[in-house]
Structures are given as C-alpha cells and as structure tokens.
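Look over this entry.
=====
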Amino acid sequence: MGIISAITALFLVFWYCTEAVVRACIPWGWRKRKDITGEIVLITGAGSGMGRLMAVEFAKRNAVVVLWDINEPGNRETMRMIKAFDGNVLAYKVDVTNAEEVYETANEVKQEVGDVTVLVNNAGVVTGKRLMNCSDDMIRKTMDVNVTSHFWTLKSFLPAMKAKNKGHIITIASLAGQFPATYMVDYCASKFGAVGLHSSLRMELQVEGYDGIGMLLVCPGPVSTGMFKGAKFT
C-alpha cells in the first residue's frame, strides 16, 4: 500500500509540473475566460489592497461578491466602489484568526447568500523586521493571518464544494513562499506554509476524486498596494 501511494504521489507531482509548463506556454489571448456570472465569491482581506482590486473585478464580471475583513471602514469602502456600478456585494466584519468567529460568520453567509463557490484566501500581514525585533504577538499574528486562517475558511466552505464536486479555491501566497528573504523570516515562514497547505490540499482532492474543484495558487512579488510601503528589496 505504501509503494502504491508513493507511485501515485510521484505521478501527481509529474502531472502537475507538466500541466504548469503547458499552461505557461499558452498565450493569454488564446485562453478561454471562465464565466463566473452568479458565482458566490468570498474574499478575505477585501477591505484594501489586492483584496479590494479582486473584489471589484469579480463584481464587474457579474459574480456575487462577499467581502470579509476585520477593517470595517475599508470593507465598506470596497462595497461602495462595487455598488457604484450596481455590482452584487455583501460585507461582513470578520477576524479570520478567530476560528469560532469564522465558523459563525460562514453560517451567516450560507443562510443569507448561499454556498460559497469561489473562496479567495487573500488576507495577509507583514512586519518587515529582523527576526529578533519581531514581538511574539506579531509573529503569532503573521502566522495566524497568513496561513492558519486558511484552515478555518477551508473547513467552513470546502464541504459544500465537495458535496457538489464543484468550486474553486484561490490562495494568494507570495514569492516569499517560494524563496527566502531577509527581514521577512516570519512572513516567509507563513507564506511557505500557505503554499504547502494549498499544494497538499490540491493533491488530496485529486486523490479523493474531486476533479470539479479547481485550485489556483498565486505567488506575486512586491505589489504597490501599501502593504510593503517603505520596504526595499535588493
């Protein structure tokens, strides 16, 4: 049984690598855009930065957008921007590091909106300090927001996707989850964790036969959204 599992794992690794290379060679103009009209898209960290940008774009493509953020004023501003063009949007104040709060708010979303079909784990924080200058609380917060919170959102919304064998999970990680960097030891560790979680879950879903649940891992470099304001990369 162990040998069969090992062979299966090696095959899946080879398959994913081959798939990634083939996809990378296909020009963007040739790729068919997925119709997401009516899809229920939940985005964590939607009150600013990339979360806000993605929320606006999803809404422009006729998705029902659910905004999650602990930053209530920022969330309301994102909602205002979407309502300005009559987009379909709802906003909830949520601390994604609090498992019970995530579960409770997830139940509210299910009752008020429906089953989430696209989950975007985007919320993130960064300290940008040397390891020894990072407080214990900030290290915990970095890990809790950037990776541990993904477990709570996945446990909340993945069961409905499995029941229908339909859905999409998007993880906004970082190049810092692929390569080490100074002054970001805690951030890199959290993003490496997010990459590992996403990749392992993708393999698990494939092995279990859930071929209708799409998985997308995004690892951007520094983005001028304010999160890395003042940071220098050499």
